[in-house]
């Protein structure tokens, strides 16, 4: 429903409620006079009962959950009370002319006591329930409306977030297609297309030298091994040293070295031996030095 339809619906509801209030106002005023209210209090009495009904109706439209259930119960209770009092007003004609006895709404005493209690308790209940409903409405926090449906009725424009690829700066201008017009073969001049051509001299073929076939030695599938003796120049000329000779040479080289400098790499470079022999010589020299230090101490 659009806004105009809602305004018309609310206006019709206000008109109906106003007329119903005027009808009920006369009965409630006479009931208030019968239970001892003065003219001013009797005039305001209908606002106490029917006014709280209107307040409870508004609260049911705003509140949710248990608060809305409470507002519906208040609305139903005061509607039923107003119905009972209007029913009593129709059954007792003396109330119209104010000739009924003060505090007498029914001939049967229990019914009279109940009606008087109901009529006198409604103003007190209006104070309590009305204050509670107003407090609930003021402290109510409505659920936020999603952004996608917030202004559906007010605006029909659609806003689109464009990416950088959609912006005109990043989109190159379209390149106009080049139209190549092909001449119609029917429209070609027949005389130009059939012009006589000069005879050309025949092209003599160029002689080609024959390809010579050369014999190529086939490669052996198996690798060739070394043949012949290794020359003496390729053999090592250094004599083979025994472990004792290597140890003596290493001791002589490292005689003035500190313990920190005695390493396998340093011995290997000076003695020119393998890394394994160098490590063995290092360990032996360090062990000899440690033994000599203990003997001196």
Kindly summarize this structure in a few lines.
The chain has helices spanning 3-34, 39-62, 66-91, 94-97, 109-138, 190-193, 243-253, 264-271, 275-296. By secondary structure, it is mostly helical. It is elongated.
Explain this structure.
With 297 residues, this protein is mainly alpha-helical. It is 54% helix and 0% strand. Helix 3 runs antiparallel to helix 5.
Largest sheet: none
Give the radius of gyration: 61 Å
Low-pLDDT parts are 186-195
Name the helicity range.
40-55%
How much of the sequence is in beta strands?
Answer: under 5%
Q: H/E order of the elements?
A: HHHHHHHHH
**Separation of the first and last Cα atoms:** 113 Å
Given the structure, what is the number of helices? 9
SSE topology:
Blueprint: H1 3-34, H2 39-62, H3 66-91, H4 94-97, H5 109-138, H6 190-193, H7 243-253, H8 264-271, H9 275-296
Helix pairs in contact: 1-2, 1-3, 2-3, 2-5, 3-5, 7-9, 8-9
Quick tags:
297 residues; 54% helix; 0% strand
